[in-house]
Amino acid sequence: MRVTQAEFIISAVGPDQYPADGLPEIALAGRSNVGKSSLINKMIQRKNLARTSSQPGKTQTLNYYRINGELYFVDLPGYGYAKVSKSQREQWGKFIESYLLKRELLRALLLLIDIRHPPTRDDVAMYDWLSHYGIPVCIVATKADKVPRGKWQKHVKVIRETLFVRGGDPIVVFSSETGQGKDELWSLILERAGK
Ligand code: GTP
Ligand code: MG
């Protein structure tokens, strides 16, 4: 995919702010700091359009990026950040849940997992919830540059087994540093977006 146009559209805090042009949406979820914003930047070949966080857990909005006037990336707030209060966490849950359940334009969710570590309880809960509601998931094992290539499959196996990955859900090994997995992920995204 050759990205010729990528623009930040809005940090939405509610449904009335979601774009109204009917383009398909690909959302990104995962623990705070897992590399969601970095992945967006790598996919669109821009250094810093999606803001990478110096303050993990702070972003509580849905950040919309329009790509080539064809689809949106929706950067969701990271979960599992210890310093976020319980009430903030509950608020996060409700906001994201209603987006994921009600947004008809949502075509797939990229669930990011750090390849170095087994998925956490939060990751497992998120994946179970998405599967339960039949939301199409693509798992992305991030920060692959931090693990020797020869060990990738071993780490992917741990992810697959810890999450009990359902048959059809792909796992893409990805690095925002090297661009590993970028083409494969674009193909999956375009297929999901019906492009
Ligand atoms: P929140 O917005 O807080 O939820 O975090 P995020 O998931 O958007 O993570 P972000 O993209 O801000 O990245 C967090 C940190 O990990 C940054 O310091 C990035 O430079 C680093 N990082 C992200 N992806 C990679 C990667 O593929 N390889 C390496 N080595 N570092 C990465
Ligand atoms: Mg981010």
Automatic annotation (TrEMBL):
PROSITE patterns: G_ENGB. Its cofactor is Mg(2+). It comes from the Bacteria. CDD domains: YihA_EngB. GO terms for biological process: division septum assembly. Residues 22-195 form the EngB-type G domain. Keywords: Cell cycle, Cell division, GTP-binding, Magnesium, Metal-binding, Nucleotide-binding, Septation. GO terms for cellular component: cytosol. Belongs to the TRAFAC class TrmE-Era-EngA-EngB-Septin-like GTPase superfamily. EngB GTPase family. Necessary for normal cell division and for the maintenance of normal septation. PANTHER family: ENGB-TYPE G DOMAIN-CONTAINING PROTEIN (PTHR11649:SF13), MSS1/TRME-RELATED GTP-BINDING PROTEIN (PTHR11649). This is Probable GTP-binding protein EngB. The gene is engB.
